[in-house]
Design brief:
Oligomer: single chain
Structural class: alpha/beta
Number of domains: 1
Radius of gyration: 13 Å
Shape: globular
Number of strands: 4
Strand content: 5-15%
Number of helices: 5
Distance between the termini: 13 Å
Largest sheet: 4 strands, parallel
Helix content: 40-55%
Order of helices and strands: EEHEHHHEH
Strand order of the largest sheet: 1-4-2-3
């Protein structure tokens, strides 16, 4: 299982495999064609409350990771859908955040990789 991360504003490539948007909100200024996502899994994204609380503040990162991971535990259907997609080919998690180190896709990737090891 190979999971990649890519900003929504970067061009797609063959190596991306299955491209899944994991944001609750559609990235600003992008058309469906330009994003080239195979699927939009809104329900796998952090809750609106958590997203607003975090507000991409790196100081809140450790607590965000903890809270979002707890939310993911209550979404087995979304997680299994992503794990199955990753088994077939590369899986690219698409996100809109500018910060490439502190966003939900980073947490989700680590969470999925832990699920694979079980």
């Amino acid at each position: 299982m190979k999971i990649l991360l890519k900003r929504a504003y970067e061009p797609s490539s063959e190596a991306d495999g299955t491209r899944i948007l994991v944001d609750r909100l559609w990235p600003r200024g992008l058309t469906k064609q330009r994003l080239a996502a195979d699927l939009w899994l809104k329900d796998i994204a952090p809750s609106t409350e958590l997203r607003k609380w975090f507000n991409h503040d790196p100081e809140k990162w450790p607590e965000f990771v903890k809270r979002y991971s707890a939310e993911l535990k209550h979404n087995p259907e979304g997680i299994s859908q992503l794990v199955e997609a990753a088994k077939a080919e590369n899986l690219t998690l698409i996100y809109g955040a500018k910060d490439e180190e502190h966003n939900e896709a980073v947490v989700l990737k680590k969470y999925l990789e832990k699920q694979e090891k079980r």
